[in-house]
Write a structure and sequence with these properties.
The mean pLDDT is about 95. With about 120 residues, the protein is α+β, with helices and mostly antiparallel strands. The protein has a three-stranded antiparallel beta sheet with strand order 1-2-3, with helices on one face. Strand 1 and strand 2 form a beta hairpin. The chain has two helices and three strands, in the order H-H-E-E-E. It has one domain. Helix 1 runs antiparallel to helix 2.
Length: about 120
């Protein structure tokens, strides 16, 4: 029983750490896909009235399970000519908490560049 009491907190910390890491990894995969979806939409929307707005909307729709007020989407292309590059960058904050203690905080960022068609 004494060994169980000594080992249980360590096992629980490891378990909750794995769960928190999995959540952060899921958010990272989500913003990576959002950047890809936004860049693809931007690449094919050069003749639209608002290609930046369409690209941002596509990125936000791809990351719909995240808190939209914390999601930052940036579309960078100043010419919108065929053959130019457009870059979509998506950022989202993360925090790793174990038993109420903040272990790590930061910003997840992903960028995707595609050629405008």
């Amino acid at each position: 029983m004494v060994e169980f009491v000594l080992v249980l907190p360590l096992v629980l910390m490891l378990l909750f750490g794995i769960i928190q890491f999995g959540t952060v990894f899921n958010h990272d995969e989500t913003i990576t896909d959002a950047a890809r979806a936004g860049a693809r939409k931007a690449a094919v929307s050069r003749l639209e009235a608002d290609p930046v707005g369409l690209a941002e909307a596509a990125a936000r729709a791809s990351a719909s399970d995240l808190n939209q007020s914390q999601l930052q989407v940036t579309v960078a292309d100043d010419t919108w000519t065929a053959g130019s590059d457009v870059t979509v960058t998506v950022s989202y904050p993360y925090t790793i908490n174990i038993f109420g203690l903040t272990v790590k905080t930061g910003q997840l960022t992903s960028s995707t560049t595609e050629r405008v068609e």
